[in-house]
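Q: Structure for this?
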Amino acid sequence: MIELRDIRKSFGANHVLRGVNLTVPAGESMVIIGGSGTGKSVLLKCILGLVPPDGGQILIDGLYVEKSDREAFLARFGMLFQGGALFDSLPVWQNVAFRLLRGHSRRPRAEAREIAIEKLRRVGLKPEVADLYPAELSGGMQKRVGLARAIAAEPEIIFFDEPTTGLDPIMAGVINELIREIVSEMGATAITITHDMSSVRAIADRVAMLHEGIIQWTGPIEELDTTPDPYVQQFIHGRAEGPIPAVR
Amino acid sequence: MTALLTPLGMAGRMVLAALAAIGRMAMFAANGVVHIFRPPWYPGEFLNALIQIGWLSLPVVGLTALFTGGALALQIYAGGARFSAESVVPSIVAIGMVRELGPVLGGLMVAARVASSIAAEIGTMKVTEQIDALVTLSTHPMKYLTAPRLVAATLAVPVLVAVGDSIGILGGYLVGVNRLGFNPATYLANTREFLELSDVVSGLWKGAAFGFIVALSGCFHGMNSGRGAQGVGRATKSAVVAASVMILAANYVLTEVFFSA
């Protein structure tokens, strides 16, 4: 279980997170929605320790994530980045097996390659892709490789940062379906940030809406369309009029 | 009065900014050195850096040294002729190359080639979130990116300097023998006679220091790159400028240390 208590983060006078409180139960898929620039990515980076929060507490399975626990936390964790963030200098299979080729999770090279090819197959890529470099792949294939890398070490917690951005609707649908399947079969706790409503409906067990630095609304996916919350209604229907200013 | 103080204020802010930058780089260097000695180590990254920094810099360093050695022979011959001391060409070429021009020009060429490439590579990794990806894959960017490059450059540049010294002396020999009419055996004998081991060793130490500076500047500016293509471009430029200036400053300090007595 991931628990965020009063997370705050400012960049100068720009108060991005003003006290975020959110609980994601173990094995659940939480999707955080919100407009561009509302701090969704900053929130993920705070949880990961890539951006230090100014205040608040982060608990994983009831334990505070202090600096010393960061290594242990990251070892249980996988992430799909918005742009893939694949390492250009490494072939696809070494990207996927990155964690398995280095450090504490190190495995023999042949075994790591085998696992990488298996994960690539799981995300619908042929073994021939394994020896290509990221620059030789299309955007959709790069996302799949990123997904394969995120799940390679069988993580308990997975973050997805805008998983369908830049993809055509069909490829976006494929990625959404893959994420849903993988999260379900692995029983992982997942946090996805997106403003793509098709992703929300495909991936989420629960939805949280981030606006003006706080969670404005949270509830199960089934209640997303019926909630009277004006912020959620404006966002999911893409209306220019409403409590969320169109020009921010 | 305000008109007088404005430029002073600007100068003060520039000095403070420069001191802050030096402080940040010094802390980055200390952090990098600590990570060199703490596991895990990444031998694959180290070998790759060794090839990129050392092996692939050989042509540019070799050509620079060859032409510099030749030009040096011509200059010393012309200068020496003014007081009938043309015979000093072999020894001055050798000492000049080994003590000063080999390390400094080699260091500057490596700075241009390697500091820019390291800064551009790491800067691009930063703006495309590859550095963040490293962290999420339980890999410390300082250990994976900076430490191997610092070690590889510190070891590779002295070797480049040694090769450059030899090629520079060869350049002087070719010009001396073919263009200035020196006897080949006499030229080589004079080179050997006046060159001391301490000359060579001091040049190699300088090479090691310059190699460290080049990798440090490339990694530091890459890791602190701004956003987008403009940010990476600025980081690359700053890496080369800072490395070049630091090499020249370090060269003076090291020359004082080695030869002031």
